[in-house]
Amino acid sequence: MRTLKTMILASAAVLTLSAPVLAADAVVEQAPAPEAVVEAPVSDWSGAYLGAYGGYGWNKHKTEEGNIDADGFKGGAYGGYNFQNGQFVYGGEADLGYSGGDDTSNGIKAKQGVEGSVRARAGIDLNPVLLYGTGGLAVTNSKLESATGSDSNTHIGWTAGAGAEAKITQNIVGRLEYRYSDYGRKDYDLGGVDDVSSKLTTNEVRVGVGYKF
């Protein structure tokens, strides 16, 4: 009887000592939770906007008599509407302004005037900056004068450029833009024997401030 009691106590002791080891072996290691994907913050550029711009234009009339560089300051207003899909921003924009450039060369004076464009825009949001490209139809009025007469023409051509916008506040947006425009060739009747044929191109830099509704 004593031997049986001793064996029961010894077995109980072994079971007691083995329980923590068995419990440890029973613990199943959990796989680490996947790290959360942090998406880049996106700024909201969608909706309508209006703004005003000022800048400088290098306006070149190419004639048979030589080039006339009617460079000068310009200013005007712009407005448009943006759509947005993630970081991709696209839409349309129009502008209307006035160029004060003028110059005289080889007895011919060139003066710029009212100008405008209707364009498409597309860009990438880099919060809080929007980088974009733009292109479309451009129209401008120009006048040539000489000792024998003067004539005005409306040039219709194309324009393309690129720019950057940055949010100053949630609704106030500043921009810097470069544009190149080719207005084609027009003939001017200055009262001489032959008309003066002029091809007009412009390079310009604009700075603007707009309000996003």
Automatic annotation (TrEMBL):
The keyword Transferase appears for this protein: no
Keyword check for Transport: no
Native organism taxonomy: Bacteria, Pseudomonadati, Pseudomonadota, Alphaproteobacteria, Hyphomicrobiales
Record-annotated Outer membrane protein beta-barrel domain positions: 12-213
Signal peptide feature range: 1-23
GO cellular component terms attached to this protein's record: cell outer membrane
Protein location: Cell outer membrane
Stated name of the protein: Outer membrane protein beta-barrel domain-containing protein
Record family assignment: Belongs to the Omp25/RopB family.
Keywords: Cell outer membrane, Membrane, Signal
